[in-house]
């Protein structure tokens, strides 16, 4: 049986990467600055003034920042066998990169977090990391932290903004002051190895206090070389950046695209849809919630069309859905039919043939306009940070935008598996990166399980962290003596080496009948409803599952007979959601009776980062939601 598992001949191997023998991340930047000197590296159209820097200009600023830090005495502050820690609390901007690489080039390592994080969390990270200096986004963030900084051993603070530093007893310098200091100071060479720590990244996990993940230069450099075996962006190609840079997923991807001479354009939630059209990116990396938002925007446009046009669009989408399903089976890329016989695949190819004509017409009349609406140049988008729902996978495949899913953790810097353009099995999380090993074991006995059987995922490879900073107990729990990392995720490996994640070990809901339910696939199915914006299943130790639902108020208002006076508790609204939840769960492939959602409640407040119900990668903080709504959940199951 033929499966499209082999990479095309022009895909480089791990050893062919120009960065294979590089010892540190700053050395990678030195090579990139030489190779792509005049190419625009970063473009921030939303800053005032607008910022554009070539690779040569960006690298020069990194060098000056490094020598400025050395002039401030950074090297003299090193008293341990690991580099001195400098905290870098900022959101995305070109100066973040200057500070990040300047810190490493100076002989220090950075401790990163976003400017919007909770004050107590930032102070905890500062104290726990033993940071000797602090780089902050602006005066606003400094003022938020300032009352508590005198209790910490900070030697100085640097503002990334052009604001005037306060004169309040704490040595504070502006970004440009550090650069000027660096211009008049010789840069003393430091010689980190691949085993030298590059950064501490504190997990933003869905529960508990963050742990400081110790990542080395080698962890990230492995990603730079390994990612080139998956995709090969070209110098000058445009990448739209929206995810927080302090998150490992975005950070590793940025190092990779900069190693290839791409131009990064900064955007945000407010401007992303406009920037897609204006800057016509070739690539973008995001999380499922971002693709859901883009999908919802397109669906909204469909709903605003005249009824005849709506029916035509529905006709094309329905038949294109049948076409892509048949095509996946025919080409051995259907996760549910990877072992399809030659006869089954031939029949699928016959089914696809007449549907292809309808699909091509749909492309000409509808799908091409959708691609133009997101710039018209996307070669693919990368999705991570959580599982992507099947209906999104299907839709973007239909309209001709490839989504390459993948898998990883902060503890693996982060990528371990990725789907390839030549083997894009939707619903799976891809094949391992070169030299990365995957084991599936029984969660209780830790005995290896056969291929195709679900269990706990263990990972071993060059991207795996050194451990958790000052936390040997957590390190020993996560990493065994042979270097295998316990991911905490459940899944399986197919006979063709595709990883399939089925849920989090600790997210599993156990009903009173002993059935184990993975909430994510059921939640993904429910999100297909135009009336549901967010959903979280509950029901631990209950007879049936329950759900907390955030309604899509805009769609609900249109449906309602009295839009100005919407009552979420009215019998009509409750019946609508009862029907939606029942229908969507039953339509899900592999539906079992235990998947049925019993009681539910409609919430008036969405899950957001601001109310601490979402992580910064837009995953639901299940334990926080449980705590917030425990009374409602108890009442829901007792009524």
Automatic annotation (TrEMBL):
<dbReference type="Pfam" id="PF00501">
    <property type="entry name" value="AMP-binding"/>
</dbReference>
<dbReference type="InterPro" id="IPR000873">
    <property type="entry name" value="AMP-dep_synth/lig_dom"/>
</dbReference>
<protein>
    <submittedName>
        <fullName>AMP-binding protein</fullName>
    </submittedName>
</protein>
<dbReference type="InterPro" id="IPR042099">
    <property type="entry name" value="ANL_N_sf"/>
</dbReference>
<dbReference type="InterPro" id="IPR052987">
    <property type="entry name" value="Chloroplast_AMP-bd_Enzymes"/>
</dbReference>
<dbReference type="Pfam" id="PF23562">
    <property type="entry name" value="AMP-binding_C_3"/>
</dbReference>
<dbReference type="GO" id="GO:0008922">
    <property type="term" value="F:long-chain fatty acid [acyl-carrier-protein] ligase activity"/>
</dbReference>
<dbReference type="InterPro" id="IPR020845">
    <property type="entry name" value="AMP-binding_CS"/>
</dbReference>
<feature type="domain" description="AMP-dependent synthetase/ligase">
    <location>
        <begin position="32"/>
        <end position="469"/>
    </location>
</feature>
<dbReference type="GO" id="GO:0030497">
    <property type="term" value="P:fatty acid elongation"/>
</dbReference>
């Amino acid at each position: 049986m033929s499966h499209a598992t082999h990479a095309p001949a022009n895909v480089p191997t791990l050893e062919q990467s120009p960065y294979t023998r590089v010892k540190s991340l700053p050395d990678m930047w030195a090579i990139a600055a030489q190779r792509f000197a005049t190419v625009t590296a970063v473009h921030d159209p939303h800053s005032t003034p607008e910022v554009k820097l070539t690779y040569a200009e960006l690298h020069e600023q990194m060098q000056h920042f490094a020598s400025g830090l050395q002039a401030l005495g950074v090297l003299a502050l090193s008293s341990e066998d690991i580099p001195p820690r400098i905290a870098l609390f900022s959101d995305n901007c070109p100066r973040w990169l200057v500070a990040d690489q300047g810190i490493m080039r100076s002989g220090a390592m950075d401790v990163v977090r976003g400017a919007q994080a909770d004050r107590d969390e930032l102070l905890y990270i500062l104290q726990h990391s033993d940071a000797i200096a602090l780089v902050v986004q602006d005066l606003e963030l400094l003022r938020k932290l300032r009352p508590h900084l005198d209790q910490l051993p900070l030697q100085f603070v640097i503002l990334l903004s052009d604001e005037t530093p306060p004169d309040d007893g704490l040595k504070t310098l502006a970004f440009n002051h550090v650069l000027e200091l660096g211009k008049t100071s010789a840069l003393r060479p430091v010689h980190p190895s691949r085993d030298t720590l590059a950064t501490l990244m504190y997990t933003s996990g869905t529960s508990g206090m963050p742990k400081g993940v110790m990542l080395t230069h080698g962890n990230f450099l492995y990603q730079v070389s390994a990612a080139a075996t998956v995709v090969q962006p070209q110098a000058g190609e445009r990448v739209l950046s929206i995810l927080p840079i302090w998150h490992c997923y975005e950070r590793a991807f940025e190092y990779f695209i900069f190693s290839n001479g791409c131009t990064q354009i900064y955007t945000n939630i407010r401007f992303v849809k406009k920037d897609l059209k204006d800057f016509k990116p070739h690539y973008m990396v995001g999380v499922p919630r971002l693709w859901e938002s883009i999908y919802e925007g397109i669906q909204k446009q469909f709903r605003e069309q005249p009824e005849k046009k709506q029916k035509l669009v529905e006709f094309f989408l329905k038949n294109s859905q049948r076409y892509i399903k048949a095509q996946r089976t025919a080409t051995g890329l259907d996760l549910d039919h990877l072992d399809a016989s030659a006869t089954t695949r031939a029949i699928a190819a016959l089914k696809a043939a007449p549907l292809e004509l309808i699909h091509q017409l749909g492309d000409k009349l509808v799908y091409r306009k959708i691609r133009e609406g997101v710039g018209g140049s996307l070669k693919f988008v990368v999705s991570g940070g959580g599982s992507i729902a099947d209906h999104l996978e299907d839709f973007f495949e239909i309209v001709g935008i490839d989504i390459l899913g993948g898998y990883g953790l902060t503890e693996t810097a982060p990528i371990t598996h990725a789907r390839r353009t030549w083997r894009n099995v939707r619903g799976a999380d891809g094949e391992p990166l070169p030299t990365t090993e995957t084991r599936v074991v029984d969660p209780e006995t830790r005995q290896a399980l056969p291929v195709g059987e679900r269990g706990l995922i263990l990972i071993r490879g060059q991207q795996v962290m050194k451990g958790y900073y000052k936390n040997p107990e957590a390190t020993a729990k996560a990493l065994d003596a042979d270097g295998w990392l316990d991911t905490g995720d459940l899944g399986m490996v197919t006979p063709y080496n595709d990883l399939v994640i089925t849920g989090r070990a600790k997210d599993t809901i156990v009903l009173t009948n002993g059935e184990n339910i993975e909430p994510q696939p059921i939640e993904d199915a429910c999100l297909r409803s135009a009336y549901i914006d967010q959903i979280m299943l509950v029901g631990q130790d209950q007879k049936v599952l329950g759900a907390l639902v955030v309604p899509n108020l805009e769609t609900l208002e249109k449906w309602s007979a009295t839009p100005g006076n919407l009552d979420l508790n009215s019998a009509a609204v409750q019946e609508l959601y009862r029907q939606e939840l029942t229908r969507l769960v039953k339509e899900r492939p592999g539906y079992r009776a235990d998947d049925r959602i019993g009681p539910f409640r409609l919430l008036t407040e969405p899950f957001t980062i601001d109310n601490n119900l979402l992580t910064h990668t837009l995953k639901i903080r299940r334990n926080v939601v449980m705590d917030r709504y425990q009374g409602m959940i108890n009442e829901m199951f007792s009524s």
